[in-house]
Amino acid sequence: xxxxxxxxxxxxxxxxxxxxxxxxxxxxxxxxxxxxxxxxxxxxxxxxxxxxxxxxxxxxxxxxxxxxxxxxxxxxxxxxxxxxxxxxxxxxxxxxxxxxxxxxxxxxxxxxxxxxxxxxxxxxxxxxxxxxxxxxxxxxxxxxxxxxxxxxxxxxxxxxxxxxxxxxxxxxxxxxxxxxxxxxxxxxxxxxxxxxxxxxxxxxxxxxxxxxxxxxxxxxxxxxxxxxxxxxxxxxxxxxxxxxxxxxxxxxxxxxxxxxxxxxxxxxxxxxxxxxxxxxxxxxxxxxxxxxxxxxxxxxxxxxxxxxxxxxxxxxxxxxxxxxxxxxxxxxxxxxxxxxxxxxxxxxxxxxxxxxxxxxxxxxxxxxxxxxxxxxxxxxxxxxxxxxxxxxxxxxxxxxxxxxxxxxxxxxxx
Length: 414
Description:
It is a single chain. Helices cover 33% and strands 15% of the residues. The protein has 414 residues and is α/β, with parallel strands linked by helices. The strands form two sheets. Strands 7-6-5-4-3-2-1-8-9 form a nine-stranded mixed β-sheet. Helix 3 (78-87) runs parallel beside helix 4 (103-112) and helix 4 (103-112) packs across helix 6.
């Protein structure tokens, strides 16, 4: 590639895809929540401030905004913000746990300009309800899918895979397909936020050896059914199935490096701007209250090190997902969650294991420290009690009380 072509690409960079956390208020208190959602942040943007952000995004030629939380619909200006984005020709999507998505709210979202809604479903009923610390959450998520489809909105699903739910994927696919879901994103649960308090649920790097081929086989099955399965940014990387895994429909796509601060941007509910919505707070460059988004938005600084510094795919991959690598290693540029890396070590009779060595501070997007050790590929698995996750997620000592579901009749009438 010529220097001229590189300059054109650099000049073309803009926040095309923005994930905007409207509030940290939430009606769940999920065990794997990276932002530890439950109650609002201090100093969240008002509706008037948020509408000014919409104007800036339009000026920066943003193409799509995904509204998240917490739960985005718990922000008082949710529908007004969606409508303002629509009116400026910015596509609007929503990601939700689904508890408060009634038929009335789904119709209101459709009328406000929301085009599609992705419902988070993390396993079959037992696993999902345990991870989301609420009995009936799975049934509520399925009801939300029905409401979204009934309103004429596009419906998708997203799943965080971990040791609690990894065996559910094939059966969960059948549930989603039969519910009319036609797009499903699968990503790894990273040890961020509350997930950093429950390290026994986190996948080990060598778990990718079995997991990635299963997802690829499931993707081929789904394609025949007219369902698109796509990996999240922290799943995959240059195993033999990489192009199949990352291509929407049988192309030659592959991971092209973290797009945080290049074409992707995250906005926190208090106005903080960072290159990706899941990046740790250390990557927040400032607030929209003080500076323009154009000044604040930039790619995170990253230098490859460790295995990633010597990898043949390093110049393309650039150490994989930034927030995931940082969550494990304390800084980006060396990512053990890599299919190619796990296969390379396995060919040598080795594997890597993450060993927690301390507690996370208890703040949104925080991390716990880990040691990364090499061990024989056939080393015995430590015994971990399967019920520990259920006990922790039901403990008020670890998770803030989730807010009650909103009364849709009070605010969201068709």
